[in-house]
Design a protein that fits this description.
The chain is mainly β. It contains one helix and five strands. The longest helix is centred in the last third of the chain and has 4 residues. The structure holds zinc ion.
């Protein structure tokens, strides 16, 4: 797993949109319900992982 491929999002975000990027290539726009997944979700097109800020930072 590529640990660098993580996109940090604010904790109040419910849905994230992904269209890929220049590194992994573009793909059709998808919406991922990060809240339903408990604050961490992986895009099934490009494998990018979206994670809540609170999951990443240790406080
Ligand atoms: Zn994606």
């Amino acid at each position: 797993m590529k640990i660098s491929n993580i996109r940090v999002v604010d904790d109040d975000i419910n849905i994230v949109a992904c269209v890929g990027d220049t590194e992994t290539g573009a793909h059709p726009k998808v919406y991922l319900n990060i809240r339903d997944e408990g604050g961490k979700i992986e895009c099934y097109y490009c494998g990018k992982t979206f994670m809540y800020k609170s999951k990443v930072e240790k406080k």
